[in-house]
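Lab meeting tomorrow. Please check the following:
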Amino acid sequence: MSNLSGQVAVVTGANQGIGKGIAKVLAKAGCRLAICARNAEKLTTAAAELRRDGAEVLAMPTDVSKEVEVVAFFAAIDKQFGQVDVLVNNAGAFDGGPLDELTMEAWNNVIGACLTGSFLCSREAFKRMKPKRRGRILNIGSISAQRPREGGVPYAAAKFGTWGLTQAAAIDGRDFGITVSCLHPGNIAVERRANSGLKSDDEPMMSIEIIANAALAMLSVPPDVNFLEAIVLPRNQDYLGRG
Protein backbone atom coordinates (compact mmCIF):
# COMPACT_ATOMS: atom_id res chain seq x y z
CA MET A 1 0.00 0.00 0.00
CA SER A 2 1.15 3.54 -0.69
CA ASN A 3 2.40 5.78 2.10
CA LEU A 4 0.30 8.96 2.20
CA SER A 5 2.41 10.68 4.86
CA GLY A 6 3.28 14.25 3.89
CA GLN A 7 0.90 14.34 0.95
CA VAL A 8 -1.53 17.24 0.56
CA ALA A 9 -5.11 15.98 0.56
CA VAL A 10 -8.03 18.20 -0.38
CA VAL A 11 -11.42 17.17 1.03
CA THR A 12 -14.60 19.04 0.12
CA GLY A 13 -17.65 19.07 2.36
CA ALA A 14 -15.34 18.22 5.25
CA ASN A 15 -17.19 20.06 8.02
CA GLN A 16 -19.31 17.04 8.97
CA GLY A 17 -20.39 13.54 8.00
CA ILE A 18 -18.46 11.49 5.46
CA GLY A 19 -16.12 14.33 4.51
CA LYS A 20 -15.08 14.98 8.09
CA GLY A 21 -14.60 11.24 8.63
CA ILE A 22 -12.37 10.96 5.56
CA ALA A 23 -10.37 14.00 6.64
CA LYS A 24 -9.76 12.34 10.01
CA VAL A 25 -8.41 9.10 8.54
CA LEU A 26 -6.23 11.02 6.11
CA ALA A 27 -4.86 13.07 9.00
CA LYS A 28 -4.01 9.86 10.86
CA ALA A 29 -2.28 8.64 7.69
CA GLY A 30 -0.03 11.70 7.89
CA CYS A 31 -1.59 13.91 5.23
CA ARG A 32 -1.59 17.67 5.30
CA LEU A 33 -5.16 18.79 4.76
CA ALA A 34 -7.02 21.45 2.81
CA ILE A 35 -10.70 21.30 3.69
CA CYS A 36 -13.71 23.33 2.61
CA ALA A 37 -17.46 23.52 3.11
CA ARG A 38 -20.21 26.11 2.90
CA ASN A 39 -20.94 26.26 6.62
CA ALA A 40 -18.07 28.32 8.05
CA GLU A 41 -18.89 27.68 11.71
CA LYS A 42 -18.91 23.89 11.35
CA LEU A 43 -15.81 24.05 9.18
CA THR A 44 -13.92 25.96 11.87
CA THR A 45 -14.93 23.35 14.45
CA ALA A 46 -13.83 20.47 12.20
CA ALA A 47 -10.48 22.15 11.49
CA ALA A 48 -9.85 22.65 15.21
CA GLU A 49 -10.50 18.96 15.87
CA LEU A 50 -8.08 17.93 13.12
CA ARG A 51 -5.39 20.29 14.41
CA ARG A 52 -5.79 18.88 17.91
CA ASP A 53 -4.98 15.51 16.39
CA GLY A 54 -1.75 16.98 15.04
CA ALA A 55 -2.69 17.68 11.42
CA GLU A 56 -1.65 20.75 9.45
CA VAL A 57 -4.93 22.15 8.13
CA LEU A 58 -6.03 24.86 5.72
CA ALA A 59 -9.76 25.46 6.14
CA MET A 60 -11.62 27.82 3.81
CA PRO A 61 -15.38 28.34 3.51
CA THR A 62 -16.21 27.52 -0.11
CA ASP A 63 -19.29 26.87 -2.21
CA VAL A 64 -17.91 24.36 -4.69
CA SER A 65 -20.72 25.06 -7.16
CA LYS A 66 -19.24 28.54 -7.73
CA GLU A 67 -16.21 28.71 -9.99
CA VAL A 68 -14.71 31.84 -8.46
CA GLU A 69 -14.77 30.31 -4.97
CA VAL A 70 -13.19 27.04 -6.10
CA VAL A 71 -10.43 28.90 -7.93
CA ALA A 72 -9.77 30.99 -4.82
CA PHE A 73 -9.66 27.88 -2.62
CA PHE A 74 -7.07 26.20 -4.79
CA ALA A 75 -5.04 29.41 -4.95
CA ALA A 76 -4.95 29.38 -1.14
CA ILE A 77 -3.77 25.74 -1.26
CA ASP A 78 -0.98 26.76 -3.64
CA LYS A 79 0.10 29.49 -1.24
CA GLN A 80 0.17 27.28 1.88
CA PHE A 81 1.22 23.90 0.48
CA GLY A 82 2.40 24.38 -3.10
CA GLN A 83 0.95 21.07 -4.27
CA VAL A 84 -2.15 18.86 -4.48
CA ASP A 85 -1.63 15.11 -4.24
CA VAL A 86 -5.10 13.84 -3.34
CA LEU A 87 -8.58 15.24 -3.95
CA VAL A 88 -11.72 13.82 -2.37
CA ASN A 89 -14.85 15.26 -3.98
CA ASN A 90 -17.31 14.71 -1.17
CA ALA A 91 -19.36 17.94 -1.03
CA GLY A 92 -23.00 17.41 -1.84
CA ALA A 93 -26.61 18.20 -1.17
CA PHE A 94 -29.81 16.18 -1.11
CA ASP A 95 -33.26 17.26 -2.22
CA GLY A 96 -36.10 15.55 -3.99
CA GLY A 97 -39.77 14.83 -4.22
CA PRO A 98 -42.22 14.12 -7.05
CA LEU A 99 -40.72 15.12 -10.40
CA ASP A 100 -43.63 17.39 -11.32
CA GLU A 101 -43.19 19.34 -8.08
CA LEU A 102 -39.42 19.90 -8.20
CA THR A 103 -38.19 23.48 -8.32
CA MET A 104 -35.20 24.77 -10.24
CA GLU A 105 -33.74 25.85 -6.91
CA ALA A 106 -33.78 22.27 -5.61
CA TRP A 107 -32.39 20.89 -8.87
CA ASN A 108 -29.58 23.45 -9.10
CA ASN A 109 -28.64 23.03 -5.43
CA VAL A 110 -28.11 19.27 -5.78
CA ILE A 111 -26.51 19.30 -9.24
CA GLY A 112 -24.31 22.24 -8.26
CA ALA A 113 -23.00 20.75 -5.01
CA CYS A 114 -22.63 17.15 -6.17
CA LEU A 115 -21.68 17.38 -9.84
CA THR A 116 -20.59 20.88 -10.82
CA GLY A 117 -18.47 21.07 -7.68
CA SER A 118 -16.75 17.78 -8.48
CA PHE A 119 -16.00 19.01 -12.00
CA LEU A 120 -14.60 22.35 -10.85
CA CYS A 121 -12.42 20.86 -8.12
CA SER A 122 -11.20 18.08 -10.41
CA ARG A 123 -10.30 20.63 -13.07
CA GLU A 124 -8.24 22.66 -10.60
CA ALA A 125 -6.60 19.51 -9.22
CA PHE A 126 -5.70 18.32 -12.74
CA LYS A 127 -3.94 21.63 -13.42
CA ARG A 128 -1.68 20.96 -10.45
CA MET A 129 -1.27 17.19 -10.81
CA LYS A 130 -0.62 17.04 -14.55
CA PRO A 131 2.80 18.80 -14.57
CA LYS A 132 4.00 16.50 -11.77
CA ARG A 133 2.49 13.47 -13.51
CA ARG A 134 0.95 12.10 -10.34
CA GLY A 135 -2.19 12.46 -8.26
CA ARG A 136 -5.31 10.70 -7.12
CA ILE A 137 -8.94 11.82 -7.15
CA LEU A 138 -11.73 10.04 -5.31
CA ASN A 139 -15.32 11.00 -6.07
CA ILE A 140 -17.98 10.13 -3.49
CA GLY A 141 -20.90 8.75 -5.43
CA SER A 142 -23.88 6.81 -4.07
CA ILE A 143 -25.74 3.59 -4.68
CA SER A 144 -28.37 5.96 -6.09
CA ALA A 145 -26.01 6.25 -9.06
CA GLN A 146 -27.09 2.74 -9.98
CA ARG A 147 -30.45 2.13 -8.33
CA PRO A 148 -32.41 5.36 -7.71
CA ARG A 149 -35.03 5.79 -5.05
CA GLU A 150 -38.52 7.09 -5.68
CA GLY A 151 -38.58 10.87 -5.43
CA GLY A 152 -34.84 11.24 -5.88
CA VAL A 153 -34.49 12.70 -9.39
CA PRO A 154 -31.91 15.46 -8.68
CA TYR A 155 -29.75 13.27 -6.46
CA ALA A 156 -29.82 10.27 -8.82
CA ALA A 157 -29.02 12.49 -11.81
CA ALA A 158 -26.12 14.08 -9.93
CA LYS A 159 -24.66 10.77 -8.78
CA PHE A 160 -25.09 9.08 -12.17
CA GLY A 161 -23.20 12.10 -13.51
CA THR A 162 -20.51 11.69 -10.86
CA TRP A 163 -19.87 8.12 -12.02
CA GLY A 164 -19.70 9.31 -15.63
CA LEU A 165 -17.34 12.12 -14.64
CA THR A 166 -15.16 9.59 -12.84
CA GLN A 167 -14.76 7.37 -15.89
CA ALA A 168 -14.13 10.22 -18.32
CA ALA A 169 -11.64 11.91 -15.98
CA ALA A 170 -9.83 8.60 -15.43
CA ILE A 171 -9.29 8.40 -19.19
CA ASP A 172 -8.01 11.98 -19.31
CA GLY A 173 -5.68 11.39 -16.40
CA ARG A 174 -4.19 7.98 -17.05
CA ASP A 175 -1.38 9.17 -19.38
CA PHE A 176 -0.34 11.73 -16.76
CA GLY A 177 -0.13 9.54 -13.68
CA ILE A 178 -3.52 10.71 -12.38
CA THR A 179 -5.97 8.08 -11.15
CA VAL A 180 -9.66 8.83 -10.66
CA SER A 181 -12.05 6.52 -8.84
CA CYS A 182 -15.49 6.49 -7.26
CA LEU A 183 -16.82 5.22 -3.94
CA HIS A 184 -20.55 4.49 -3.76
CA PRO A 185 -21.79 4.44 -0.13
CA GLY A 186 -25.05 2.94 1.01
CA ASN A 187 -26.81 4.23 4.11
CA ILE A 188 -24.47 6.10 6.47
CA ALA A 189 -25.46 7.28 9.94
CA VAL A 190 -24.61 10.92 9.29
CA GLU A 191 -25.83 13.83 11.41
CA ARG A 192 -28.77 14.81 9.19
CA ARG A 193 -30.33 11.38 9.63
CA ALA A 194 -30.61 11.58 13.41
CA ASN A 195 -34.25 11.91 14.41
CA SER A 196 -35.23 12.99 10.88
CA GLY A 197 -38.52 11.09 10.99
CA LEU A 198 -37.98 9.84 7.43
CA LYS A 199 -38.80 6.21 6.74
CA SER A 200 -35.56 5.78 4.78
CA ASP A 201 -33.58 6.75 7.86
CA ASP A 202 -34.97 3.76 9.74
CA GLU A 203 -33.14 1.42 7.37
CA PRO A 204 -29.88 -0.38 8.30
CA MET A 205 -26.98 2.07 8.62
CA MET A 206 -23.18 1.98 8.61
CA SER A 207 -20.92 4.18 10.69
CA ILE A 208 -19.01 7.06 9.13
CA GLU A 209 -15.77 5.32 10.14
CA ILE A 210 -16.52 2.34 7.88
CA ILE A 211 -16.90 4.44 4.75
CA ALA A 212 -13.94 6.64 5.71
CA ASN A 213 -11.70 3.58 6.00
CA ALA A 214 -13.00 2.31 2.65
CA ALA A 215 -12.00 5.65 1.13
CA LEU A 216 -8.56 5.38 2.71
CA ALA A 217 -8.10 1.90 1.23
CA MET A 218 -8.96 3.19 -2.25
CA LEU A 219 -6.54 6.09 -1.87
CA SER A 220 -3.71 3.90 -0.56
CA VAL A 221 -3.25 1.47 -3.42
CA PRO A 222 0.03 1.78 -5.39
CA PRO A 223 0.14 4.73 -7.81
CA ASP A 224 0.10 2.45 -10.85
CA VAL A 225 -3.19 0.87 -9.68
CA ASN A 226 -6.66 2.35 -9.98
CA PHE A 227 -9.23 1.03 -7.49
CA LEU A 228 -11.81 2.32 -9.95
CA GLU A 229 -15.11 1.67 -8.17
CA ALA A 230 -16.37 0.35 -4.86
CA ILE A 231 -19.85 -0.16 -3.42
CA VAL A 232 -20.04 -0.33 0.37
CA LEU A 233 -23.38 -0.77 2.10
CA PRO A 234 -25.00 -2.47 5.08
CA ARG A 235 -25.54 -6.16 4.40
CA ASN A 236 -29.26 -5.89 5.13
CA GLN A 237 -29.93 -2.70 3.16
CA ASP A 238 -32.23 -3.01 0.17
CA TYR A 239 -30.07 -2.58 -2.92
CA LEU A 240 -30.23 -5.57 -5.24
CA GLY A 241 -33.78 -5.58 -6.46
CA ARG A 242 -34.75 -2.32 -4.81
CA GLY A 243 -36.97 0.08 -6.70
